[in-house]
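Q: I'm writing up a methods section and want to include an example of the input and output format. Could you take the sequence below and give the corresponding predicted structure tokens, formatted cleanly so I can copy it straight into the document?
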Amino acid sequence: MGERKTTVVVGGGTMGVDIAHTLVRAGCVAHVVEPGASRREALANELPGVAVHASLDSVPWPTVEAVIEAIPEVLAPKQALFAELVRRAPRTALLTSNSSAIPISAIGAGLETRERMFGLHYFMPAHLVPLVEVVHSEASDPARAEELAAFMRTTGKVPVHVRRDIPGFLANRLQHALCREAFALVEAGVASAEDVDLAVRYGFGFRFIAAGPLLQRDHAGLDVHCSAAATMYPDLAANREPSRELRDAVAAGRLGMKTGRGIYEWTPEAIARERERYDRLLEGALELVASELRDETG
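A: Here is the clean output for your methods example:
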């Protein structure tokens, strides 16, 4: 793939826009496909200098080197889109899906050239969070997977290979394992939601910016953690369905910021303050690891 990569992002929602930002920032030629007329008008302000298309028909397909699908999380439309991409994109182009849950093996089922298809899972906000997961199916070509990972590095991302297309991939499985225990502790009256969040942010979560959980074990000593695990594992939450509190909140329409109440209460003013604070801290964290990211991308 050339230095200036020609890319297509299909879907002009929040994730699609943030992904396009990362591509343009890296010097890529980016096209965004968004069928909604009102959304296309908004994209003119959000993505200056990016070609926005109403359909796949107007994309200059012979020049395209990579496609990133970012449409809603429904299998059938994704399958239909990938069938079109196989027909339209050059056979050398990488075809990827930003799905956070649907396996690339299901999206590409029955299609030709499955060896060039991958999950490419970004994390919100995609223009700030460095991680991206390169998810393989059983048909994926390892050489093309490394090509995709190398491309991601040139866009300032830290790619990780997920070599089995399992539910939740890698990072979301780790995140949900933590959240299962977090909800269990709140439901058992061990700690409040506020104190659980503080324990993660200012305790072991604070250290994660410097060392992940396995490297952290080497720092502290495997014997220490093996002994602690033997004591705690029998007592950890092992429920095989979402927690009662989470299910009850969803059933009652308490969905978080989008409805004004979730674990916490939200007013429009509180939402604005929280999002500003959240992005500001992520930007600061990104600045802290910038030198490592520059070393990794050469």
